[in-house]
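Recall from the previous lesson that a structure prediction takes nothing but the amino acid sequence as input. Here we apply that procedure to F-box domain-containing protein from Trametes pubescens. The sequence below is the only information supplied.
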Amino acid sequence: MSPTLTLPVETIEHAISLLRGDIPSLAACSLTCHALLPISRVHLWHEVVLPIELDAYGSHSARVEAFIRIMNRNRNIAAYIRSVVVCPSPGYSYMDGIEFDGVTWATLGAQLPAIRSLRLRDILLLDLAELVPIIRDRPTLEALILDNVGMMSDDNYSFWPPSLAQPATGAAAVGGQPSRWALRTLSVFGNAIPMKELSRLVLFLEQSTEVMSLEALDICCAMAPPEESPRRPVVWPGIPSFGASLRHFGITFRDTKPQARIAVDPVGREHVQRVISDLPRCISLRSLRLGYERTGAFMLGALLPSEAGTSSGYTPTPFFLELLVDVLSASGPAPLPLLEELTLVFGGPPTWLAGFEAAFTRLADVLVGDHGGAEGAPGSTTARRYPRFSRLDVRTISLSTLTPFFEDGDVEQHRGRLEMERLYMILPMLAGFVEAGVHVEVTCE
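The prediction returns the following C-alpha cells.
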C-alpha cells in the first residue's frame, strides 16, 4: 500500500488564505472537504457586503432581518465577521435616497461580536451625529469609513447634542470610569459635506479623548462652506487638538469660491496655510494625505470655458507644495521625524500639474536628499533628514467627472490621453524620488 501524504495543517491554512476575496473558490473549498470548512469560513465571512434598497415602507430592514436570520440559523458565522460594508444595491446610490437606518444597524451590530471595520458607501446620513452611537455602542469597532456619503439635513438644522464634552458611553468600567471605545481610524472620503458638520465632528473627537484614542483621521471630502457673515463665521476643520498622537492624517483643501466665475477664495487659502503650518504638532505622524479640490473649477473650465474666468483661477499653482516644503525644511529637528508615506491627490486633470517641476524637486530634496555636514569638511557625514520616508503616491482625478458628458468611445480615448500624461509629464517630475529608491505610484483616473 502506498504511504499517505499528510500535509501540515499550517500549510493547508496558508494555501486557503491565499484565496481571500475569491468567494467562489473559497465556497468550493468549504464544500470539498469537511476539514477545510473552518479555515474557509474564516475567509468567506471575513468581510460582508450588505446591499440595501428601500422597500415599500421606505425602510431597508427587510434585507437586514434576512441576514440576521441566516446568522441565527448558523450560530458560528457571526464570530468570523470582521468587516461590514453597507451600500446601495447595484444601480442605486445616495442620489436615490437610500438612507442609513441607525435603528436597523443597531439591531444588526448587536449580532456582530467581533466586528472591527464598518464602511458606509454611497448612502445618506441625516447628519454626522449619527456616527456617535455607532462609535459608542460597538466595543470592538476599530475603523469607521464614510465613502461618498451624502447629508440629508441642512447645515442649519443639524441634530448634534448641545453638549459634547461628556459623550454618553456604554457600560462603565471598574471604579465608575467610562469604558474605552475601540475606534482607532475614522475616515471621511468623497462627497461634499457641509463644513459645519465636519467641524462639529472634529469637536466631538476632541471632547472624547478620555474614552477614545484615535490614531488615523481623514477629512478628505469636498468641504461645502456656508455663506459667511459677521454673525455666522465659518469654522474650517483642521488638525485636531490630539494631533500629536495621530499616526495618519488626511485632509482635502478647497480654495476657490462657489460662484459662477472661478476666483481664489482668500479664506480657503488661509485655511491651507494654517493646516500645513500646524503639521509640526503631529510629531507621531507616519502617513500624510493632502488633497487639493478644484473639481468645480475643472468642470466649469472644461464645459464652459468662456465662463471660467482667468487661467490663474482655473488652474492651480504649486503654492501648497511650496508651503509644505517650507515647513518640512524648517531649521532645527525634522518637524515630522517619523514620516514614511505622502499621498497627494489633485481634483483635476494631469495637465494642471504643468509647472510643478520645481516644487516636486524641492520636495524630493527635503524628503530624500542628503543633508549633514559641509561638503568636503573633515569628518562630515550626510544623512537623510527623513530616513523613514519610502513611499510617494500622486493621484489626479478627472475621468469620473467628465464621463457623464462623453459620447461612445470618448472614455477610452481620454483614458489613453491620461496614461500618456502620467508617463511623460508627471513621472519625470518625480525622478528625484525614484532615484532615491522611494516607491512611487502615479494614478491618473
